[in-house]
Amino acid sequence: MRYVSAAAFLGLFVFAACLMAVSAADLTLAAELEAEQNPVSATEESITKGRVVYTRFCRSCHGTEGKGDGGGGADGVTVANLVDDTWDHGGTDEEIFKTITEGVPPDLYMEPWEGRISEEDIWNVINFIRDLGKRAKG
What average pLDDT does the structure give for the chain? Predict the structure, then answer.
């Protein structure tokens, strides 16, 4: 009987350890997903603010509809289409935020906007870009 109890205890211990490992992995994944979310809700107000900032700073290169056809990009450089399904530098809100704030090295054809556009306005621009994408797909 002692061996059965010890085996049962060992089995229970292994099971508990597995549950803890799975729970830790779930928490890590949940934290990563949370970090990728935009802290500014995509309200009509945010989208409108994003449109104003986009028009001022982004439209000249990315175009009115975000298709990369604004004409302001450097010669020989393909400006990113912001409404297609291809995101060369990451398509999560967090990755887009990083691209806008840090630019795209090494040539920085997409220049860094950190310090020139507030963080809140960058999140608003991301909400506007998401809205543009939805409208482009109809």
Answer: 84
